[in-house]
Amino acid sequence: MGEQNVKLASNQRQTQIFVKHLLQDVKALGRMLEEGWFDDKITRIGAEQELCIIDKNYRPAMLNTEILEKANNPNFTTELAKFNAEINLVPIEFKDKCLSEMEEQLTLLIAEFRKAATEFNSEVILTGILPTIRKFDLSMENLTPMQRYFAICKSINKLRGNVYELRIRGIDELIMKHDSPLLEACNTGFQVHLQVNASDFVQMYNISQALAAPVLAASVNSPMLLGKRLWKETRIALFQQSIDTRTTSDHLREFSPRVTFGNGWVKNSILELYREDIVRYRVLLSSELTEDVMHKIEQGEVPQLKALSVHNSTIYRWNRPCYGISDGKAHLRIENRILPAGPTTLDEMANATFWLGLMNGYKHKLDDVTKLMDFDIAKSNFTNASQHGLDTNLTWFENKKVNAAKLILDELLPIAEEGLKKVKINEEDIQKYLGVIDKRVGSGNTGAQWMLNAYTKLSKETTPDDVLATITASIVKNQKENKPVHEWDQPDLKDNLELDHTLLLVEECMTRDLFTVQPDDIISLVAEIMDWQKLRYVPVENGKGKLVGLVTARLLLRHYCDSFDDKKPIAVKKIMIKEPVTINPEATIMEAMELMQKRGTGCLPVVKSQRLIGIISEQNFLNITKRLLNRFASN
After folding, report:
1. How many domains does the chain divide into?
2. Which residues contact 612 (CB under 8 A, 6 or more apart)?
3. Which of 55, 210, 360, 623: disulfide with 61, CB 3.0–4.6 Å?
């Protein structure tokens, strides 16, 4: 759970004081490592479950503070956006039935959270990126109203300005600008913690870096964002771009993004990572600091190292080093941040088991993974796995080229099983969770692939908004059954998904793939566009994308009826409607329908900040009507 008592430094003096404490914390940590202060007798595991809150239409519900207040459970906490929350599991010793015990704890806590959510007519979903999320859900008004979140957003804006640009390409391409870092709130993960001996930290951290790619390839569950099919694990690209404090000019130098895989292998100590975080990244947050860490050490007391914790929480390594205190003793952990939330708690525990088994298996199998793989290869593998999942061709130890699925099935699963047996994990648990990985990888049906297949199937049958809502509803249904994703059936429109279509927004129903002309284009071009694309309306925009007119089939017919000289080219601006009735994308479809009836028009160009972004017409409403009639007919 992140440190909540933080703020944005209001002046240079506060920043200087914080940095002084930060340097003292690093010095204290170094001394603790030298003097052997760390608890190396017990190995614990833990996890943080991030989740989304959705309404009855399977879209984000801004209710986290209300639900948390109702639940009143210290294991529940807020996240960046009002439609997110986090569940923190109690750490368990890594032995015996710890894995099934963790799943049971997770299941009970989610059920408790869901029970509180039902009081507000809402639901819980575990998914790397919520398919139904919309751009306007990510406005600053939906930021969780807590000092920590305001402070981090302000500090990021201060470094880079308030323009956030995404460029992600997969099957589709997403290019967009936004005005807040709340884009990061699209991401939800299942973060697994493994306590490691201080003397083993370097070996174990480097192993975690090498394993990041194949573990992620087996776990991908976030292939879509804002209706676009992108990377198999789009979270990786989205997180980096949404929290990136670099400006365009910075890319000419070797500036590191705050979301990072890292810049090299760790050689001697965890201190290398903390020191790198200090020298590479500006302090974003401050806190009230009163602890004299060196005095505490002199007194034999374990220090909190609060400044180090606060700064560490603003640098997002995919494998993050963590310092903590358990039962009065200091310990070190590796936090695996690569795993997405979902598809089910069973799938999540299978992912965690796979990683934990591999970590312990390679601990006994390899003294130094850096002798078998270049760091740049590990980093490249990770990016490739994010994009392609199980289809990734990895460069493995000693430059061996191998497909991710083959590597997992032939080599990694046996090592994971061996690693779990070395700490005497219950045999039934080993077979249960690694069996899920085996079947998922063998079938190729990851959460990401299931979602992409569902999108392809449903997009031939219904509207884009219904496709995303149906996929989301099916995820919720399967999660409640806790059936692993490789056993999921494809969603069907005959499942009678209950949606309140009166609450649908124009942005969810409008046509985005537009065919437009400019004012000086000739009328015959408009006629051909209408004929070729079977259109009744063609918007007219200027060179900057601003709507300046509209041509309708009726206007075109009138022009050709009145015209006796087809040889003379006539510009579109001569016949277009110069001030067409428009609508905002955040209006409801009921508002759009009423406006169209009132103004006697068959379409409404959709305009945002004076720019044309879509069009909604009778055809869009026919699609919705068809969906409703099909549902009624099946009842």
Report:
1. 3
2. 514, 516, 539, 541, 545, 546, 547, 605, 606
3. 55
State which amino acid sits at residue 550: L
Q: Report the chain's mean pLDDT, rounded to a whole number.
A: 91
Pairing of the two strands 123-125 and 92-93? unpaired
Confirm whether 392 is domain-assigned: no
The pLDDT score that the predictor gives to residue 151 is 84
- pLDDT of residue 253 exceeding 50, the answer is no
The three-class DSSP label of residue 101 is: helix
Give the pair of three-digit tokens for residue 389: 């999942």
pLDDT (0 to 100) of residue 247: 54
The better pLDDT of the pair 558, 416 is held by: 416
* Secondary-structure breakdown of the chain: helix, strand, coil percentages, each rounded to the nearest 5: 50, 20, 30
- CATH code for the domain in which residue 108 is found: 3.30.590.20
The verdict on 187 and 97 lying in the same domain is: yes
SS (H, E, C) 240-293: HHHHCCCCHHHHHCCCCCCEECCCCCCCCCCHHHHHHHHHHCCCCCECCCCCCH
Hey, CA dihedral for 378, 383, 384, 388, is it positive or negative? positive
Residue 488, classed as helix, strand or coil, is coil
Amino acid at 566: D
Based on the domain organization, do 536 and 477 belong to the same domain? no
Same domain as 541, residue 476: no
For 608, residues 6+ apart whose C-beta sits below 8 A from its C-beta are 584, 585
350 and 408 Cβ atoms separated by less than 8 Å? no
The alpha-helical segments, DSSP class H, found in 36-97 are 64-71
Above pLDDT 90, what percent of the chain?
73
- Between 565 and 481, residue with greater pLDDT: 481
Q: How far apart are CA 116 and CA 580, in angstroms?
A: 47
The 8-class DSSP code of residue 546 comes to B
pLDDT tens sequence across 162-179: 777 889 999 999 998 888
Backbone angles phi, psi at 51, to 5 degrees: -145, 165
- Ranges assigned E (strand) in 327-423: 329-336, 393-396, 400-403
Give CA torsion, residues 501, 507, 513, 516, to 10 deg: 120
Terminus-to-terminus CA distance in the chain, angstroms? 46
- Strands 547-552 and 603-608 turn out to be unpaired
